[in-house]
Amino acid sequence: MQQFETVHGNAIPLNRADVDTDQIIPAQYLKRIERTGFGEFAFEQWRKDPDFVLNNPAYNDAPILLAGPNFGCGSSREHAPWALEGLGLRVIIAPSFADIFRNNCAKIGLLTVTLPQDDLDHLIARAEELPNAEIVVDLASQTVATADGAFVRKFDVDPNVKHNLLNGLDDIGITLGDEAKIAAFEAARPSIYPQTPVPA
After folding, report:
1. DSSP-assigned beta bridge partners for residue 138
2. What angle do CA 196, 173, 30 make, to 5 degrees?
């Protein structure tokens, strides 16, 4: 998993509440067996509207998404975070998230930040008026700030999620951190039991 560093860039203002995972990535793409390549299908139905925010080239390659409350609700598909990651996003800021969606994001290195609705209203209005206006998200200090420093807010994050993101650790990486203990356990097991080879 990519190690999380400070994210500095403009933000996509998606001023909608209750955006569910089917809207993020339509169900017909769940049959794909790859984990990559979902970004081009993200918000596919909404993109048919020429005025939809992702059709505005000013927001191309923006690393931050600003959204309404209850973002990521609906079914618990992992494909939704994969699609958002495929858009180039590193951070999603919203007043609230569906729990399973938030957990799925953390497992792939996508940071979810919760801020009060008033703060989101301010940031969304700013991003709509000034599409190139930048936001700085610093996980180490747990702050969201405008690049000019006029707006600075602290946010809460689970300590384990913070540690894993800062160190680029997914579930496999966490397990490999105990590789020596795993090898010692396997070496001590009676030979009549199946053996799990340890990578060289």
Report:
1. 143
2. 95
Instruction: Using alpha carbons, list the distances in angstroms from residue 9 to 6, 45, 138, 147, 172.
Output: 10, 26, 12, 9, 30
pLDDT tens-digit series, residues 56-87: 999 999 999 999 999 999 998 899 999 999 99
67's enclosing H/E stretch is strand 64-67
* Domain housing 66: 7-188
**For the segment 137-166, what is each residue's pLDDT rounded down to a tens digit?**
999 999 999 999 999 999 999 999 999 999
In a domain, 105, yes or no: yes
Domain CATH number, residue 183:
3.20.19.10
Tokens of 19: 């955006």
Instruction: Confirm whether 198 is domain-assigned.
Output: no
Burial 157-186 (b: 16+ CB within 10 A, else e): beeebbebbeeebbeeeeeeeeeeeeeeee
- Cα–Cα nearest to 155, from 199, 98, 94: 94
Give tens-digit pLDDT for 97-139: 999 999 999 999 999 999 999 999 999 999 999 999 999 999 9
CA distance 23 to 105: 16
Residue 145: beta bridge partners? 136, 152
H-type alpha helices, 1-158: 21-24, 79-86, 99-108, 117-129
